[in-house]
Automatic annotation (TrEMBL):
It holds the Pfam family HTH_3. It comes from Pseudomonas marvdashtae. It comes from the Bacteria. InterPro entries: Cro/C1-type_HTH, Lambda_DNA-bd_dom_sf. Gene3D superfamilies: lambda repressor-like DNA-binding domains. This is Helix-turn-helix domain-containing protein. Residues 8-63 form the HTH cro/C1-type domain.
């Protein structure tokens, strides 16, 4: 969520929107927008984040990642892995 919050904050500022204006656009409180941007909100609905990102022309997607992280020994033996 930290990365998403930072992205939303950057996009909001690039579009010259206050937290209050962005909140009003999506029916949220300014405190919710602040919490999303600063990663201090305990829980936020994925629909809220998706709506904000869609409004800025972004799409929320999931990307597959390896189930296990490579060990340091593996990375030393295979330096171009990944």
């Amino acid at each position: 969520m930290k990365t998403l919050g930072e992205l939303i904050g950057r996009l909001r500022k690039e579009h010259r929107l206050s937290q209050q204006a962005l909140a009003a656009r999506y029916g949220m409180s300014r405190a919710t927008i602040s919490g999303i941007e600063n990663n201090t909100i305990a829980e936020v609905g994925i629909r809220k984040v998706k709506a904000i990102l869609n409004g800025f022309g972004y799409e929320l997607t999931a990307v597959a990642r390896p189930l296990e992280r490579p060990t340091l020994d593996f990375l030393r033996k295979h330096p171009f892995h990944g």
